[in-house]
Design goal:
Number of strands of chain A: 21
CATH topology of the largest domain in chain A: Rossmann fold
Radius of gyration of chain A: 24 Å
Oligomer: homodimer
Strand content of chain A: 15-25%
Strand order of the largest sheet of chain A: 9-6-10-11-12-13-16-17
Distance between the termini of chain A: 62 Å
CATH class of the largest domain in chain A: Alpha Beta
Largest sheet of chain A: 8 strands, mixed
């Protein structure tokens, strides 16, 4: 605990320790909640209270005038738990990978470091232990821009093991930068699963005022335990409200904002479910929990490229990018186009054995190569169309299909993990 | 006119010619409007009526049962115009470039061809001549996925000439696939302009049921004449309503749906204006019309690449893409990240004289390289940050800056055409 001297003195004078309930009044507002642990890299003048809503709030106290700090001994402090009580509760496995959800702000630089262990993360959310027998471990501790396909494979193996050992659900705290890619990869690799696998991130680090880390973790745990859903999905905040969440299919979700808590959006489908104080709304008929044994198919062809088409793109940009690759996904313009000079080179790539999949940089809507000349030329060249699949999901699925299917084109065009709408014959 | 025999006979029996008002009842609905010209490639059983709303509707009539076709001679047919009346009306220049807005459906294949001349397009919207003295010409007739940077230069020259010859406004019918890129390019190249330049597209071809071509053209003409706005902007439908439109800054707009009429969305700002039957709402204080002479700066460094970061991206992907290029824009993950292996190669590129600009594939929100280690390493390497600028706009601006500025980094970080929010010092 490295509070500032001032704040440390004030807490000492109250004999306040972690887990005690404090009431803090500042700027005309009063916050009442449980004092949470303070970390080495956090602002020494900020204490973190867990509010009754389950939400953590960081309050600058140390050197501020007019901040009133009161111990509330009349409210019983929450029971200290060394270990969650086991036996009667569902076992939920938490597999840590790093990211903001498991991070601290270094107050000296304002920078965020991935420093929280999964245990520490769980200890930030004591309500988890009321709901479930939490079994947590750290698989990686990296920011998700450093997640590479080989990490997806390790993670899929770990998840499959947990599910096959009977975990009621697997939660994966994950950096948000590439959480959508990882979710899609797990969806393809895990295949049929008996119980839910939920990736959960945070846009604001765990010790920050209004961090979304505890609320997302708690909502994910509740959803996993209470709902009869067996999908790989992503749970994050939905809209500006503190207590609304959306659950997205792992293959249909994209980070659509750099910083908002509700950055994750389902594209081309409604979210699998939305969660509000009024309850849970399931928008799709998802797979139900069954007793299937997970037989993960983790092979990936890693030499696949994702290219966004741009007006100055030359055939050589494409040629260089696919040279040495075993597959390419293009985020074309509009319905799935590139300039006509490129068609010949795409054709050459396909006939040389390197499949090319066409998606749209519009993100929303389906590709359709039957409308314009460019599209028909691309179809003629053998380009694989994938309806309304996201470019990022197509990139992941192509890696997986190349390693797991004898007929990549058919596999790409066939929905297997909610990644696309039903095949429309006109596009084939 | 190549109607089917049945439809041709029915129209003949009414002695109906183009410009007459017809009432057509089908499927329980009655449409009343002006009979529009029929084109060779259109469905021979479909007639097109221009409704009072200014909206064109195609109705399948020929071989359908229960279709009632009535001539309405009591309604005066619109005046036939050989040429618009000149003299008292503002002169609006229309520079055709092709695209769906100037296209026909070939009913035999369902394919769309860019076949309409700008004159033919204008003749589809006779109301234009009531508003303005239309001066139209065709510069290109291509689908916009084939627009390349040299087209932007020709177009900028033509627009500058029209403005300098006194045109009250310049309208540019344009394919939607790359309309956002062209709009951004014009905004940078034209610099200060005296009167508006409006790009207008259509998602459904001119002779199609519910084409948005006439309504968009008409709304753009009205907006250009009636509003005191001197910006390069894009006008398209807004929402599902037939008579709502949005006017977007050319540097802030992106095609966000493959097929919807309201595919174009302003990103990170409100639209410049919205138009509804209730009137026009201007959301920003735009540049006002002035008597400035346009001095277009059309030079572009065309060897610039736009790369989307993906989890399996290897340093060699980057190296190959930038080799032979004079600049690169990366659509990084989240706040503007790539994996740590790439940083060294990005640094090498920058020190070798090839600037690298970081944007976000999230599209919404600003980049911020000060929060995480990866970002700070990228800043250290000399990556240029551009706040909330779209990747596509950054790509266009980098081409322009390399050819027009001695200090590319400063130019990139300084807003010059509404392309970004004011510079935030923390990002520099």
């Amino acid at each position: 605990m490295s509070y500032s001297q001032t704040l440390s003195d004030r807490l000492d004078s109250l004999q306040a320790v972690n887990g005690d309930v404090l009431s803090v009044t500042t700027g005309g507002r009063t916050y009442e909640g449980t004092l949470m642990p303070h970390h080495d890299f956090s602002d020494p003048d900020v204490l973190v209270l867990k509010l009754k809503s389950g939400y953590n709030v960081g309050i600058k106290v140390g050197s501020e005038d007019g901040v009133d700090l009161v111990q509330r001994p009349e409210v019983p402090a929450p029971k200290k738990r060394d270990k969650p009580v086991t036996g009667n509760k569902p076992r939920v496995a938490i597999i840590g990978t790093g990211g903001t959800i498991a991070s601290f702000v270094d107050y000296r630089t304002g920078a965020v470091h991935p420093a929280l262990s999964t245990d520490a993360l769980v200890s930030q959310v004591p309500e988890l232990a009321d709901l479930a027998d939490i079994d947590s471990k750290v698989l990686f501790s990296i920011f998700s821009e450093n997640m590479a396909p080989h990490h997806w494979q390790e993670l899929a193996l770990a998840v499959a093991n947990e599910l096959n050992k009977g975990a009621e659900a697997v939660l994966i705290p994950h950096g948000t930068d590439s959480m959508g890619y990882t979710a899609a990869a797990l969806a393809f690799m895990l295949g049929e699963i008996p119980r839910p696998v939920i990736l959960v991130g945070a846009q604001r680090s765990s010790d920050r005022p209004s961090s979304d880390s505890p609320s997302n973790l708690l909502a994910a745990t509740r959803f996993a335990i209470e709902q009869d859903v067996a999908e790989v999905c992503v749970l994050m905040h939905d809209g500006p409200s503190d207590d609304s969440f959306a659950v997205h299919f792992g293959t249909r979700v994209r980070k659509m904002h750099t910083s908002r808590r509700d950055a994750f959006q389902s594209i081309n489908v409604a979210p699998l479910a939305t969660i509000s104080p009024d309850g849970v709304t399931i928008n799709h008929a998802p797979r139900r929990k069954s007793d299937v044994k997970v037989e993960a198919r983790m092979a990936l062809e890693k030499d696949v490229v994702l290219l966004q088409y741009f007006p100055g793109m030359k055939p050589w940009h494409f040629e260089r990018a696919v040279s040495g690759s075993h597959g390419a996904v293009i985020a074309g313009s509009g319905l799935g186009h590139v300039n006509k000079e490129m068609v010949e080179f795409i054709s050459k790539s396909i006939y040389g054995g390197t499949p090319v999949v066409m998606t749209s940089q519009c993100l929303n809507g389906a590709t359709n190569l039957g409308v314009y000349d460019t599209g028909r030329d691309l179809l003629q060249a053998g380009v694989i169309t994938v309806d309304d699949m996201l470019p990022e999901t197509a990139y992941v699925k192509l890696m997986w299909s190349l390693a797991n299917s004898d007929d990549v084109a058919t596999t790409m065009r066939t929905p297997i993990a909610n990644e696309m709408s039903e095949r429309r014959e006109m596009n084939v």
